[in-house]
UniProtKB/TrEMBL annotation:
Keywords: Membrane, Transmembrane, Transmembrane helix. The chain crosses the membrane at residues 6-26, 33-55, 61-84. This is Uncharacterized protein. It comes from Dreissena polymorpha (Zebra mussel).
Length: 86
């Protein structure tokens, strides 16, 4: 008896946009007087990597399940054929 276990993976797809404000401290020497200038740089980071990894993992799980089922079916068929020949 072949039992197929179906694994359902629910993936929540979302994109998070992070605005990171990085303060860059620039030291400027003007006529032997040290002037410290703080420059704010906005960096936009889009987080999509987690979603992609989850999707890839889901695809890998499905492929592995399919391969295992195919191997089991082939083994069963080979065993049945051997038994029938004997």
């Amino acid at each position: 008896m072949l039992v197929v276990v179906e694994v359902v993976v629910v993936v929540v797809v979302f994109v998070v946009v992070l605005v990171v404000v990085v303060e860059v401290v620039v030291v400027v020497v003007v006529e032997e007087v040290v002037v410290v200038v703080v420059v704010e740089v906005e960096v936009v980071v889009v987080v999509v990597v987690v979603v992609v990894v989850v999707v890839v993992v889901e695809v890998v799980v499905v492929v592995v399940v399919v391969v295992v089922v195919v191997v089991v079916v082939v083994v069963v068929v080979v065993v049945v054929v051997e038994v029938v020949e004997v």
